[in-house]
Amino acid sequence: MIIMKTNISRSWTAVCVSALMLMAFKSSAGDAATAVIPQKSYTGTVVSVNTNEHTLGLKGFLWNKSFNLGDNCVYKFVDKDAGVIGDLRPGQRVTVDYQDANGVLVADRVTQQPMREEGMVKAIDPAAHTLTMHLRVTDKTFQLPTDCQVTLRGDKSGTIADIQTGNHVTVTYETPNGRPTAREIAQTSATFTGELTAIDLGQKTLKAKAMFDTKKFNVGDDCTILVNGKPDGKLNDLRPDERLVISYNDINGVNVVDRIAPAGTPQETAMTASQPMAR
Prior knowledge:
Largest sheet: 7 strands, mixed
Strand order of the largest sheet: 8-7-6-11-12-9-10
CATH architecture of the largest domain: Beta Barrel
CATH class of the largest domain: Mainly Beta
Radius of gyration: 31 Å
Structural class: mainly beta
Number of strands: 17
Strand content: over 45%
Shape: elongated
């Protein structure tokens, strides 16, 4: 009888061990199935976001996709690396890294893709809250919301009033309702104030002096020259010893001018902000 009890005990022990091993195997298999879901990515424009339901709708090149935003989803934006779901808004272009779990798209990471244009300010319309930029082959108009950030050269904070026709700028924008809307305008032009000492109409160059500093400038084809408050001046309208404010960009040591205005006449320069540049 003692031998029989021992055999029974050993049999039950073996059964229990087998059961535990089977459960561990199933659990391990389940974890492995979850872990092997491949990561995918999709880029599009935000058309909808529901912060309560944690859902995100994107419009892509060919079709739209809807995503469930996971509890541990990471958000990265142009102006911040550690964002939150509340930073999402229609018009942003984003890339979503996600898992496709049997047709359910679960987002693990949302990264905003910056949309930028670089060119010359052709016109600013304060009444319509728009800025028109001249690009290489075309013009593009942006809406100017009240919260649009303006960054001046040297990372100084500015306002829309600091941006003038002829300035070279970089516009970071979004497209809510399909309308390009500026979120940040970075003014890249440097300025030099001095007296005109020489001008070469054939080479389209000029020199100006300020105190002990003299600079040579090459005038760009689309340079805005303000004369009598109007942005349609020519190089031959400039006069020797005239005091000028010259906006330019240093391109590998060559000073390329995009705007020339008389110095000391802020009223006249401000008037031109809403006037389109003559072509």
